[in-house]
Write a structure and sequence with these properties.
The chain is an all-alpha fold and 380 residues long. It has a single domain, classed as NCX, central ion-binding region (A middle domain of Talin 1, Up-down Bundle), CATH 1.20.1420. It contains 15 helices and 2 strands. Helix 1 runs antiparallel to helix 8, helix 2 runs antiparallel to helix 10 and helix 4 runs antiparallel to helix 13. Keywords: Membrane, Transmembrane, Transmembrane helix.
Length: 380
């Protein structure tokens, strides 16, 4: 019974996160309406849609504490990064083609090279930083500083001059009490009035509170589910928590793609990954170790986290090459390839979590451990 109630609660948190992020998107779109194409997707949209990963990692660390909390946090952020890199582009491509908007999705090579290379670099930094066995506040600080460098570069690359874009999003309007019951935070805050800067900020804060509450429930549900089926929280978070927190990224990218903003759709996914790796993991790690002291990881946690970091880097490089080599556009074949790669990733994580002695899982695990060990040897 606990299995079904946990899965039901995870589904409910997905809906709450989705609706709350709708309000966040409305406000962030207004505040970032004058940003250039590709910049808004990689910064404001990426931060807004990645708040669930940040809150989930915070709650994993401060609720479960020590190694279990950290493994759940890095499982969520890394799993979400894999989801974003494969599922979101696939959904965008299939939706655009399926609706007859276009036969392929063409993304600016500048956006792919800029965000793709930045993501690969921060993932390499993650491998070197989170090598264990002890994690301190400065590890989190370095990760956050990497994100600030990325954002600073993005803002400077926007160039001079003001960009005026038409702002079209509006709240649905109607009864505020009914809107709150339906999860329509935009109407709850705005009512029938139009959005402005002060109301956009209020809507942002209101949305963040709801996202935080949903993420707390998500952590509790994942912990109960993992305990009931006998699977460590790390493996549950890589699949379930990461997918739940990636719902906003998927919806925002889908909406951008439907408007023909393919650069923002892909930049949101890549920018969200950079935020997840650097800030959604870095800030909780920084705060927790500052308050409670260093995190001492067990041998099994070091092994699992090491393998996941390497696997994340390998998959990111593959996706990056798919986009870079497909200069004429990404089509249905590429989308199916991305979905297949994600299916293999999930199958591997489940195989590891179940713990059965499966030769192919053991072989892949051994190779990933060797690569992780090679990176560790470069540090020592």
């Amino acid at each position: 019974m606990i299995i079904f109630t946990s899965l039901g609660l995870i589904l409910i948190t997905c809906i709450i996160i989705w609706r709350a992020c709708d309000g966040f998107e409305l406000a962030s779109n207004y505040l970032g309406r004058n940003m250039r194409d590709g910049i808004k997707g990689a910064t404001i949209n990426a931060i807004g849609s990645s708040l669930p990963e940040l809150f989930t990692t915070l709650f994993f660390l401060f609720v479960l504490k020590e190694k279990d909390g950290f493994s759940g946090g890095i499982g969520t952020t890394a799993g979400s990064a894999v989801f974003n890199a494969m599922i979101i582009p696939a959904v965008v491509i299939l939706a655009v083609i399926g609706k007859g908007i276009s036969t392929k999705v063409v993304v600016s090579q500048k956006v792919i090279l800029r965000d793709g290379i930045a993501l690969i670099l921060v993932e390499i930094a993650l491998i070197f930083l989170i090598a264990g066995p002890s994690l301190n506040w400065w590890h989190g600080l370095v990760l956050m500083l990497l994100y600030f460098v990325y954002v600073a570069y993005m803002l400077m690359s926007q160039g001079t001059g003001k960009v005026e874009n038409d702002y079209e999003d509006e709240a649905e309007g109607g009864n505020r009490a009914l809107a709150l019951f339906k999860g329509d935070l935009a109407t709850t805050v705005l009512g029938n009035s139009k959005i402005n800067t002060s109301k956009a900020i209020i809507l942002l804060v209101f949305s963040v509170l709801f996202i935080g509450l949903a993420c707390f429930w998500l952590v509790e549900a994942c912990e109960d589910f993992g305990t009931e089926i006998g699977m460590p929280i790390y493996f549950v978070s890589v699949i379930l928590a990461s997918a739940a927190t990636s719902v906003p990224d998927t919806i925002i990218s889908y909406k951008d793609a439907m408007k023909g903003n393919y650069d923002d759709a892909v930049a949101n996914a890549l920018g969200s990954n950079i935020f997840d790796v650097c800030f959604a993991l870095g800030l909780p790690l920084f705060l927790f170790t500052l308050i409670y002291g260093p995190i001492e990881m067990s041998a099994s946690t070091i092994e699992n986290v090491g393998q996941l970091r390497v696997l994340l880097l390998i998959l990111t490089v593959i996706v990056f090459l798919i986009f870079v080599l497909s200069k004429k556009g990404i089509n249905r074949v590429h989308a199916r390839l991305l979905l297949f790669l994600y299916f293999l990733f999930v199958a591997y994580i489940i195989g590891k979590g179940v713990g059965n002695d499966m030769p192919i899982i053991n072989e892949v695990s051994s190779v990933l451990s060797q690569i992780s060990g090679w990176f560790s040897s470069l540090i020592n």
